[in-house]
Amino acid sequence: MEKAQSQDAAMASSENSALKASWLRICDRLKGEVGDVEYRMWIQRITLGPLDDDEITLYLPERFLRDWVRAQYGQRLQSLWREENPAVQHVELRIDKKAQRAAKTGDDAPQAEEGGGAANLSISAMANEDAAALDREEAVAATSPSMNEVRNDLAVPLDRRFTFDNFVVGKPNEFAYACAGRVADHPASPGFNPLFLYGGVGLGKTHLMHAIGLKLISRGNISVAYMSAEKFMYRFIASMQSKSQMEFKEQLRSVDVLMIDDLQFLIGKNSTQEEFFHTFNALVDAGRQIIVSADKSPSDLSGLEDRLRTRLGCGMVADIHATTFELRISILEAKAKASGTPVPPKVLEYLAHKITTNVRELEGALNRLIAHADLVGRPVTLESTQDVLKDMLKAHERRVTIDEIQRKVAEHFNIRLTDMSSARRARAVARPRQIAMYLAKQLTSRSLPEIGRKFGNRDHTTVMHAVNRISELMEQDPGLAESVELLRHMLES
Ligand code: ADP
Ligand code: MG
User: Fold this and answer.
1) What is the mean pLDDT of the chain?
2) pLDDT tens for each residue of 306-330
3) How much is the pLDDT for 370?
4) Is the CB of 294 within 6 Å of ligand 1?
5) Ligand 1: which residue has its CA nearest to atom 11?
6) Cα 309 to Cα 313: distance, rounded to the nearest angstrom
7) Any binding-site annotation on 206?
8) Rounded to an integer, what distance in angstroms lies between the CA atom of residue 151 and that of residue 251?
9) How far is the CA of 449 from the centre of ligand 1 (A)?
10) Is 488 exposed, middle or buried (0-12, 13-18, 19+ CB in 10 A)?
11) Is the overall model pTM greater than 0.90, yes or no?
């Protein structure tokens, strides 16, 4: 009896060390694949749990981290495990409250499972090495001239096409344009700090923010950080997880101009709002410029903390209205001219009449026409326009619903409709589900969280991952691309 027990224990412990060894190798490979920053932010927070049958459990200290790791690295973790250790076929990511406590108290010692089962394995031993690598990276970044525009690890690079010169001004956007120009010429001047730009999707908010940033940078030594509110949140939470909160705060508070795009994303995210509020105050008090965009005015952004709302409304609030026919024509003329391909005025008028939603779609339609004309070597005509844009224009007339998408996709792949919202993760079900999420994002105007809810209450990061994954796969796999295009075609007609 006793002997059997000790044999069991010996077996368990050799199995354990094999698992640990596999896990360390997987971590090493992931570090090579994702880079030090991402690694330190996400992968390093994972602790190894027990193997049950062919399923290995990995723990993360918080739901947010678990969801993010699952969406971004779930599949990769699974395939790495399968390669490393054939005994492992599935990876289960769980939240472990003990790991959470450990992270909060700074105690990174390995966690024992309840009842003395397989030991969790902390990989904190790697932390110092990573920190050193990160320091090296930052030292390089600090000396590189291009880095005075944005901190690589903090902000997102600016899009060089989004200049003031490329922005077409008309009645709906002239006020926002003028405010943006004013802030670019005289940042942090009284009455213009913060600059709050708002308006519907695809109307030029991001374009104007980048234009401000590009102009400021072109004039010299000024540090500009641009990021979406979503990115701000991820970075903020990641900094708490990796205990580099001070560093994050200092980096943010050291910029001359901070731009946060799509602030509506912070609705309901209270601790992130709080952090943003403090950053905001620190920067404004220090005479730095803040620029924020959102889909609604400060007073209409319900779910924002009152004191933040008040401060956001204190500077200049400028809205971008829906486009008018005249503005759409001017934009089309400018873009057609820039393309170098002649487009008859009749065609531009036709487009301006048909596509009224936003500039992004207008631009997309024109680009498609021009690409088609270049490809077949024939000039753009009204007939070719109607033909090339048939699908797109039809989609404008018809509203596709997520239910329809789920039904069609399930039918096409011969799976049950309920599997669109089930928890099953077998490839045969998961892939069609991802395709349906992808199509929902492409063909409807639903937000990521709304789509997630329709697919069995999944998190928006899961949807985001699905969209990215399918776009990627469509490039690599012509068969899959064809299926998706076929489905899109069926749904749109
Ligand atoms: P938003 O951030 O408001 O959703 P974007 O700034 O991303 O919109 O604009 C969507 C697309 O339309 C971009 O490619 C942008 O360059 C273009 N665009 C929007 N407004 C204009 C404009 N007034 N002139 C030229 N291009 C524009
Ligand atoms: Mg935008």
Assistant:
1) 83
2) 999 999 999 999 999 999 999 999 9
3) 93
4) no
5) 360
6) 6
7) yes
8) 8
9) 24
10) buried
11) no
